[in-house]
Inverse folding.
């Protein structure tokens, strides 16, 4: 399985770069993992959010054998065990790629959300795109440790 995180804009904060690098390295023990950045749109408002969503979906690429998951505060909240269950089901079903979309400051447009396989929430609060990626990577790592019965998840 290959896990991809596709996010709007680059990581600027040194702490976030380091934390994300650490979790991506840890995830790589269990599966291929890559992170892609798409350029943020100029300006604000619905048109910019639509443009960013189109870029995210284009970066997600082919849908064959892929599950595309959008992170949105309105999505389904999952326990860490449920994250593990999702990855287990993907492995059982032969899903080759799991792509996680992280929007920019304006979030994800309804048009983008309509094209994904699942909408998940990291919680009801709004997180910066940098922090959201770190939390996402940590939950992905935790899910794999749960599946392997490793002591990280207590």
């Amino acid at each position: 399985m290959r896990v991809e995180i596709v996010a709007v804009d680059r990581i600027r904060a040194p702490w976030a770069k380091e934390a994300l690098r650490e979790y991506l390295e840890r995830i790589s023990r269990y599966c291929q993992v890559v992170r892609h950045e798409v350029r943020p749109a100029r300006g604000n408002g619905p048109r910019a959010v639509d443009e960013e969503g189109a870029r995210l979906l284009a970066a997600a690429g082919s849908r064959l054998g892929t599950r595309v998951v959008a992170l949105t505060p309105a999505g389904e909240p999952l326990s860490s065990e449920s994250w593990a269950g999702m990855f287990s089901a993907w492995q059982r079903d032969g899903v080759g790629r799991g792509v996680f979309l992280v929007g920019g400051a304006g979030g994800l447009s309804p048009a983008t959300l309509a094209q994904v396989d699942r909408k998940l929430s990291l919680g009801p609060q709004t997180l910066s795109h940098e922090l959201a990626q770190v939390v996402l990577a940590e939950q992905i790592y935790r899910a794999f440790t749960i599946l392997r019965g490793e002591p990280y998840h207590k």
User: Anything to note?
Assistant: The domain at 2-147 is CATH 3.40.1280.10 (Alpha/beta knot).
